[in-house]
Structure formats: C-alpha cells, structure tokens
Amino acid sequence: MELIIAAGSAVLVIFAFFVRYIVKQGDFMKILELVVFIDLFGVALVLPLMFKYATALGADATKFGLLGSIFAGSQLLGSPFMGWLSDRYGRKTALLINFTGAAGSYLTSAFAPTFLILCLARIPVGVVKQTMMISSAYAAQLTPTKQRSAAIGRLRSMISLAFVIGPTAGGFIASEIDLKAPALLSAMLFSFDFFIVFMYLPDVKVDHDHCPTKKKPSLMEKIRAAAKHPQLRVILAACVTMEFGGRLNRHALPVLTETLDLGPRATGIVWSTTAAVTTISGIAMGPLFHRFGLTDHLATMYSIPVACAMIFIWALSPSIMTFFSAYTSYMSAKLVTETCFSSMLTHTVSQNQVGATLGTLDSLNSMIGLVAPLIAGYLSEFDPTYPPLVSVLFTLLAYIPMRFLYTGTEHQVDEKNN
Fold it and tell me: Less Cβ around it within 10 Å: N or C end of the chain?
C-alpha cells in the first residue's frame, strides 16, 4: 500500500506541475485538454487489465462479457441524462459529478471482494462518466465557432495520447507493485481532475433565453426538439453508421493480428504507434483546416472515402507493414471524421441543446456497442476479414447522407444565437 501511495503521489506531483504552468497562461481550453488527458490516462491504466480483475474474482470469459454488457447498458442510460444535466446545470457541475462517480467506482473496483461487487461498481461509472461528451459541449462554449473543430480535435487527440502510455504504465504498475494499484491510481487521478475542474475551470452557464418558455426544458423535451431538426437527423445517421463500422473493426482487430502472427510486443507497438499518429492528426487538424480552407462538411467528404480504402487494404493486407500502415491511416481518417461530426452537431443545435444532443449520440453508440461485438464474432467464424469488409459498407453509408442529404450551413445556429 505504501508503494501505491508513493507512486500515486509522484504522478500527481508531475500533473500538478503542468496544471500550475497552464493556469498561469489563463487558457481554459488547455486546462480542459489536460483534464481530458488525465481522465483518459486513468482509464487507460485499468482498461487493459479489466479481464484480469474479473478472472481474479473467479469470472470466466462469459462473465467478463456480462461485465462489458453491464457497462454498455449503463452508458446507454447515462449518456442522455448527463447531457441534459450539463445543459440544465452547467458543464462544470456535470464534470464534477462525472469525476466523483468515476473515483468512487474505480476505488470500489480495486477492493471488490466478489465479481458481483465488481459488476455493481461498473454501473455508476457507466452512468455518470461521460467526460468526452461533456468536454465537447464545454469546448463549444469556450471557443469561437470557426475554431471549434480544432478544439474538439485536440480533445480527441488527448484520448489517443493517453492510450500511448497508459496501458504500458498500467501493466508495469500491476506487475511490479500490485494488481489493484492501477485502479487505485486511477481513482486518485479522477479526484485530482475534480480538484482542477472545481478550482480552475469557469462555471459557464447555458443560455436558456432562446427557449420559447421561461421554464427550462426537460430531457425528453430536448431530445424531441432536437429530433425534429432535419439536418441533425442526417448527421446522427452518418455518425451511427460510421460508429457501427468502427465497432466491427475494433472487435475484428485482435483476430486479424493473430492471423498475421503478431506477437504481444508487435501488437503493443501497433497500438501505441497508432495512438501516437492519431494524436498528431488531432493536433494538426486546426492548422490544416485553416491552411486549406476546409469546413467540417468538406473534410468528411475526403476522410470517409479514405477510411473506406484503408479498411479494405488492412483487412486484406498480405504483410505486417501493409497492415500497420493502412490501419494507422484508417484511425487517423476516422478521428477526423468523428471530430467533424461532433463539431457539426454543436453548430446545428442551439447551445441549450448541445449536451442533450451529444448525450443522445453517445447513447446510440452504446446501443451499437451491445450489438456490434456479437455480429463481429459471428462473421469472424466464417472468415476474419468479413467484419472489416462489412464495415466498409457501413462507412460508405455514412458518406451517402452527408453527400446527398446534408444541406445546412455549419454556422447558422451560432450566428442566430450571437
């Protein structure tokens, strides 16, 4: 326990140095980016070890699948609720609840005496931990309209950066100190995030003056109002089909790496390098969009076909080098597409509907997370290349509504609100 506390304290001291430096600059977006990185670093410490946590408590592969389904079901319920809560009570309040639930859940997971307790601990974190959704809505308020894609791209790049070092660090800590150490360290990091948000992020309230009534709309009222927007339906349809293809690829990747005889070290290199390249892509989005005059909609017209081509190549790749190059390119194109979709969503609805809209999207993605692994597993029984090849069709389906149905101007809502 002393080693765990010492390791956690050392990590917190390092992050505290960065917090002090960023706070002096007075850039709230950089503070938010650091918060997202610390959060996802905590997740990356534990996520690859969840199977070991489950098996240590006597679970088999079937029970572990149940654990994943419980978490996905909790996200399905929690995403729209947390989006509505962030709209009604502010992004800062939602983030504070987010990190409180995450810290308590991971602390319980570390000391769970039975598998049942571990399953129960995954419920609150699935419901309230919606960091990326809330942070994207926060960024929509903190940044000017034309800089929003770049801001959301940098937030997403923090996810990739966290997964460059998080899994390796978590594995080292678990093997050298204790299996429960990564979960305890994650709980400490979430508590530190709570402190940063509470002390340094502004309490930006959502403007409800654009509502036709003075009464703040309920969650269902916001979802129904957003669903009536024709362009929003187009964007959501594209998001869902793109996500379905991505989930098929995610669950097909381990099977394909096995067919290429990739060992644990080579697989780790693929994951880490892909995360690093994706991080660079997210950071470079803003300057590249500015340099070439790209809008969110135009960027998706390029990134979606690139993603389709790269899926096809890495699914049928004859060599490790081809597989690695194509998969890395696919993940970069996917990051650009998803970032543009998120930015377009924030442009399409008014500020008091951003949280509920992003929450609804996350809820739809959670539903996909329940179904896609089953379909990918079934297809892999026939041939390991079937899931990614089918995902090409779904990715193309994301292109069709954006190419032929999307007619909205990206900044129309912001101009009306301003």
Answer: C
Helix (H, G, I), strand (E, B) or coil at 384: coil
3-state secondary structure of 153: helix
Q: Which of 126, 84, 96 is nearest to 354 (CA)?
A: 84
Would you place residue 406 in the very low, low, confident or very high pLDDT band (cuts 50, 70, 90)? Answer: low
Chain center to CA of 408: 26
pTM of the model: 0.71
Contact 188, 12 (CB under 8 A): yes
Tokens of 328: 């890395």
Contacts 24+ apart (CB under 8 A), 56-62: 56/179, 57/112, 57/113, 57/114, 57/115, 57/118, 58/115, 59/115
Task: Give CA–CA dist 301/4, Å, rounded.
Answer: 48
Residue that is written with structure tokens 């509907």 in the block: 353
Structure-token pair, residue 117: 């307790």
pLDDT at 415: 42
Dihedral pair phi/psi, residue 210, rounded to 5°? -80, -5
Q: Which tokens in the block code for residue 270?
A: 């693929």
Contact predicate 204/141, CB 8 Å: yes
H runs (alpha helix) in 47-147: 50-56, 61-89, 91-110, 115-128, 131-142
**Euclidean distance between CA atoms 128 and 39, whole angstroms:** 13
Query: Cβ of 92: how many Cβ atoms within 10 Å?
Result: 18
Structure tokens at 233: 């339906």
d(Cα 410, Cα 163) in Å, to the nearest integer?
31
